[in-house]
Amino acid sequence: MQVGKRIYLKREMPDLKVVKSFAKLPASNVADCMERSNAMNPRIQLMSNPDQEMCGPAFTVHTRAGDNLAIYAALKYCHPGDVVVINDEGDDTRAVIGEVMMTWLRDQRHVAGVVVDGPMRDIDSLQNWKLPIYATGTTPGGPYKEGPGEVNVPVACGNISVYPGDIILGDPDGVISIPRKEAAELLPKAQAFHKKDDAKAAAFSKGTADLAWVDDALKDKGFNVIDDIYRP
């Protein structure tokens, strides 16, 4: 995807009540309600120590590999409650963000979190922060500040598409993106699924879960259940 030099200051935003409701749900349950899709690649891992889930509208950044000029633009223009989502063009040689920039995002912009499809640095400090921070790893290598880069355009992050204003939900399992246009319709389904999933976990714990469906599914998919040992 070609990187341009565009900075959009406005986005179509999700309903704040819907965002707050998704913040109460596990990312896994919501992803299951989206046909088990929209989860970012597990190379993007939780790097800090938050005491709550990350949930907020996406403020997207598409930067040239190893360059953070456009991320500095995001520092100027993002808003409280945003999740800053950064596409670093798959680069893994240079950290595009670290403690100094994160401090501004936390203390001045009051963002809900940061997601970088690339490395960060200053992990010795940031790993203890309550701000949710996700990245692919760490490196001491620093970035360029030349551009190009774009702000609030569609980006690819963790192998999925993220549009400005999509709802980004993250917990210790990882990060998912909830399309803004589908969020209101998805919410009650995800809430019902979560309630049902809690009941399912309780049944498994008590040994009362009904697994009869497994035999039917195996038969339907053509599995052979052999009452014998494997012999080469």
UniProtKB/TrEMBL annotation:
UniProt protein name:
Putative 4-hydroxy-4-methyl-2-oxoglutarate aldolase
Q: Which enzyme class?
A: lyase
The reactions it catalyses are:
oxaloacetate + H(+) = pyruvate + CO2; 4-hydroxy-4-methyl-2-oxoglutarate = 2 pyruvate
Q: Which InterPro entries match?
A: RraA/RraA-like, RraA/RraA-like_sf
- Binding positions for Mg(2+) per the UniProt entry: 122
Q: Which cofactors does this gene product need?
A: a divalent metal cation; Mg(2+)
Q: How does it assemble?
A: Homotrimer.
Main function: Catalyzes the aldol cleavage of 4-hydroxy-4-methyl-2-oxoglutarate (HMG) into 2 molecules of pyruvate. Also contains a secondary oxaloacetate (OAA) decarboxylase activity due to the common pyruvate enolate transition state formed following C-C bond cleavage in the retro-aldol and decarboxylation reactions.
Instruction: Tell me which EC number(s) this protein carries.
Output: 4.1.1.112, 4.1.3.17
Keywords on record: Magnesium, Metal-binding, Methyltransferase, Transferase
- Listed PANTHER family: 4-HYDROXY-4-METHYL-2-OXOGLUTARATE ALDOLASE 3-RELATED
Q: Which residues bind substrate?
A: 98-101, 121
What family, per the record?
A: Belongs to the class II aldolase/RraA-like family.
KW Transferase (keyword) present? yes
GO MF terms, alphabetically ordered: 4-hydroxy-4-methyl-2-oxoglutarate aldolase activity; metal ion binding; methyltransferase activity; oxaloacetate decarboxylase activity
Top-level taxon: Bacteria
**What Gene Ontology terms for biological process does this UniProt record contain?**
methylation
